[in-house]
Amino acid sequence: MRDLLAAAWTALGGGPVPAVTVRGSTGLAGPLAAEEAALAAVAAQLIAARELAGVPGPVELDARHVGLAVRSERFVRRGDRPVGPGFAPMSRFWRTADGWVRLHANYPHHRAAVLAVLGERDPDAVAAGMAAVELEEAVVAAGGAAAAVRTEAEWTASPPGRALAGRPLLSLARVGEAPARDVRRPRVLALTRVIAGPVAARTLAAHGADVLRLESPRLPEDPGTLADTGSGQRTAVVDLAARHGRATAEELLAGADVVLLGYRPGALEALGLDPAELARGYPHLVVVRLSAWGTGGPWGRRRGFDSLVQAATGIAAACGSPDAPGVLPAQVLDHATGHLAAAAALRALARRRDMGGVWHAELALARTASWLLAAGRCPGRGGDEPDPAPYLVELPADGGPLTVVGPPGCPPWRHGAVGSEPAWLS
Q1: Closest by CA position to 39, among listed 50, 51, 23, 18
Q2: Which end of the chain, N or C, is less packed with Cβ atoms under 10 Å?
Q3: CATH at residue 392
Q4: Which phi and psi (to 5°) does residue 262 adopt?
């Protein structure tokens, strides 16, 4: 864990890493360092938060709490009813003529793309007659999300893998000049969805930020995903493609301190919300952009999810057997990237306060995968499932109270996702 934390803190531009004490076990069993990666990412954002608050010092981590937090979707409930999203039936590994492909079909338009390629009568048979990369490319061309299962060596040798080779875990850079600016309660505009970006948003909310999440009327979030990842946030529906929606966004950006960009690269750029435009129009903003595959290279604008990045980068092969690929014990790439994104935002706010400047950060799930794989194998590791009861909190939310896993190392949120006007709190 200390090596992974040191790498993350160095990428964040930090100095010596403060002492971190870990109690207990996350319960994240498996052949890779999923436990260490989760602990390191959470520790990084807690260190960054203490730095911003002016109270540096040692950090204590309850590993059981961290292990539950990175599997939070399994524990979110409304009353006695689980509401976590889980995976749709077609979001799984599919056997192909020469290997395996992982497909993602939790959203209707992604499911439609899978069916456009495989049909409805016997999709397994159609997949079994195609090569893995052939099926991957066909689903992507149809507007869907897919990744052939590769070994780590195959990924490293592939064009998208080569494009990421040698890249740091994350980048945090001063990209322009602006006056120093200090705020007691940062305002965070979250243009993001699914898991990694919302995890960053809920983490910043746990540290006291006013987080406003904008939802698209054309692409509503899955209600279970929003219940899980929307804690501490206000949500507003704004059509950024419409003139009035764009005007609303401009007002919000003018008053924000941080903007989280978590849509597929190219989607927000088409609306004038790329980092370069934001730096010119709103130099006071800290911009944190997350993606699946990075923003360059042949997959720079490709859709991606944690499960697909695990498949493409060699993680699924490492976690599997000779008979079938496997998975990490949690969606660690999403959650670790989310915590690291929060750390980048907090570090940038501290730097903006101390030295001024325009600060931008870039993170990608595939870079987080390389960080995890670089830690090597952990053969024979087991883990006991932590008891979630001591870590659950009940929050008021739209649709009724929610029970969720509280934020590790922070006071609990005051509410779950609640609808709001698209405006900042006074």
Answers
A1: 23
A2: C
A3: 3.40.50.10540
A4: -130, 15
Confidence grade of residue 414 (pLDDT, cut at 50, 70, 90): very high
* Total number of domains constituting the chain: 1
The amino acid present at 34, given as its one-letter code, is: A
Q: Show the tokens assigned to 151.
A: 């070994």
Would residue 409 count as lying in a domain? yes
Q: How buried is residue 145: exposed, middle or buried, by Cβ count under 10 Å (0-12/13-18/19+)?
A: buried
Question: What tens digit of pLDDT does each residue of 86-128 get?
Answer: 899 999 999 999 999 999 999 999 999 999 999 999 999 999 9
Is 347's pLDDT higher than 90? yes
With CA atoms as reference, report the closest residue to 155 among 302, 308, 266: 308
**Residue 419, token pair as written in the block:** 């609808």
Please state, in angstroms and rounded to a whole number, the distance separating the CA atoms of residues 161 and 367: 10
> What φ, ψ does residue 325 adopt, rounded to 5°?
-70, 165
* Phi–psi pair at 175, nearest 5 degrees: -110, 5
Which residue segment(s) compose the domain that 368 sits in?
A: 2-84+165-295+329-419
Question: Is residue 99 domain-resident?
Answer: no
Q: Considering only CA atoms, which of 72, 45, 75, 77 is closest in space to residue 61?
A: 45
Tokens of 21: 């004490």
